[in-house]
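User: Run a structure prediction on this.
Assistant: Running it now.
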Amino acid sequence: MFKRNLAIILALGALLGLISTTADDENIAKAASKPVEKKVVAIKKSQTKKKSTKDIKTLDEALKAGVPVVVKLGSDRCYPCRMMKPIIEELAKEQDGKAVFLDLDVYENRDLAEKFNVQLIPTIIFYDYKGKVKGKKIGFMNKEELLETIKELKLNK
């Protein structure tokens, strides 16, 4: 008796699963057959150049800006990293349009930390205007050292 009831329950479960799968397939087919509204937005070249580089928040955005990029990988738990934060913010304002300065947390950007084999923080990565990595420094850097490194690595055009 138990085996018979179990067989009936399993058969009903399979049937219900098949019905719901079929319904889902029908909904997907209906959605796929609906016309998709396409919108094209034209952006003038002058509009893209006016964007302030100090408002850039992601590395992908920064590398497309066509200017040198300085990325500080650190953490709020790290004292030298906290000391560099106002320096990075100041340089971002001063160098607006000439370079991008990003302050990224290693715990929120683990992929970048792994990519650059970050062992100690702060680690500063320097990209040229083409988006190519040109240098990596470990440890605290003051404003003058950061600017000097940009000149030494010839990150500008």
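The radius of gyration is 27 Å.
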